Amino acid sequence: MNLKRLFHALVLSGSALGAAHCGGGTDADSTVNAGSGSTTPDPDAGTKLPDGGTSPGMPGGGAPGW
Amino acid sequence: MSTTAGRPVQEVLADAWAVRYRIETEACLRFGALARRLDTATAPRVLIELAERASQDETRHAAHCERFFRALGGKTLQGVTHVVEYAPPTLPEAERLTYELVSQCCVAETQSTATLVTLLDAAETPELKAVLHELARDEVHHSRLGWAYLTWARPRVDFSFLGPLLPGMMDGNAGAEMFEPPREDADRPELLRQGVVPQSMRRQVYVETMKSVVFPGFEKLGVDTGDATRWLDAKLGHAATSA
User: Fold this and answer.
1) Cβ of A50 under 8 Å from any chain B Cβ?
2) Contacts A–B by Cβ distance under 8 A
3) Chain B residues inside the 8 Å CB shell of A5
4) Helix (H, G, I), strand (E, B) or coil at B125
5) B89 near B58, Cβ under 8 Å?
6) What pTM, to 2 d.p., does this model score?
7) How many angstroms away from the CA of A45 is the closest CA of chain B?
8) What is the distance in angstroms between the CA of the first residue and the CA of the last residue of chain B?
9) pLDDT at residue A15 tops 90
10) Which domains does chain B have, with CATH numbers?
11) Nearest residue, CB atoms, B172 vs list A13, A44, A62
């Protein structure tokens, strides 16, 4: 895994997005050539969530990842 | 079915997809709530739309997780239908919203992206590779939402509250097993090509991602990482003495 590329694709591109739409910051140039990904909404999106689940969350905790 | 040490491989894989199903259903609800709160906070439309789209993405991801779970013979699957805020309730709304976005996007989605990229490189079937690619592509956007939000929020929110809270946030993200000695059945190398990062490798990916992506991102945007760095060093010290 190329961590430098990941930093560019996530942090710098995200920061540039924030700067471009929110004013302030000059990061846009540093994200040139970072991965862009798709921006097309997926037609399968919107499936209903199942019934009968649980309620995670604990103040001071954090969201789980893969 | 392979039945080396501990549980059968198929059971380990099914359990992993069940956990992921919970993670995705939880994330779906959290992103939906974040979209509404970003709207209330008068955040730029692009951030609100990213959160709305992420919520839809996670529903689709959950369906993929369920499909793999069922294909492995999994029977009982429990999704998440309600979520409780992770942010300490004593914080003002702007700080709670920041906490939630940092937890979900900057930490969890960044970590998930790194894990998915690792899995994508090793996936042995076209179907698995296609799904991992789809998920990784989406998670990139979910992570970016957090970094974009921090850039927007920086002139509006004092981030000094966040540094001391990062260890608790990261502890919740890492989970109970991350720094414990790897379980033999969850650490088999063959899991990697079947879509699950072996436990010891998972820790390595986590640590590298925190040190090379998340912490530098925080520093760049004015979030102090001193406490988080000390937390990670302590966890790694514990892991070394427990091995």
Assistant:
1) yes
2) 209
3) none
4) coil
5) no
6) 0.88
7) 5
8) 29
9) yes
10) 9-242 (1.20.1260.10)
11) A62
Q: At what angle do helices B126-153 and B93-101 cross, to 10 degrees?
A: 150
Do the Cβ atoms of A49 and B155 come within 8 Å? no
Distance, CA of B104 to chain centre: 7
Answer left, alpha or beta for residue A59, where phi above 0 means left and psi between -120 and 50 means alpha: beta
pLDDT digits (tens, 9 = 90+) for B110-147: 999 999 999 999 999 999 999 999 999 999 999 999 99
B202 band by pLDDT with thresholds 50, 70 and 90: very high
Contact A49, B62 (CB under 8 A): yes
CA–CA separation, B7 vs B233, rounded Å? 32
Minimal CA–CA distance to B199: which of B227, B171, B239?
B239
Residue A54 pairs in a beta bridge with B80
Residue A55 has a CB neighbour count (10 Å cut-off) of: 11
Whose CA is closest to B68, among B122, B7, B24, B4?
B24
H or E stretch at A41: none
- B-contacting residues of A 5-34, CB under 8 Å? 6-7, 9-15, 17-19, 21-22, 24-25, 27
Which residue of chain A has the CA closest to B66? A50
Instruction: Quote the pLDDT of residue B177.
Output: 92
pLDDT at A28 > cutoff 60? no
Please judge whether A65 and B84 are an interchain contact, meaning their C-beta atoms are less than 8 angstroms apart.
no
**Cβ <8 Å between B107 and A53:** no
Alpha carbon distance A18, B44 (integer Å) = 9
Residues 6+ apart with CB under 8 A from B110: A6, A10, A65, B143, B146, B209, B213, B214, B217
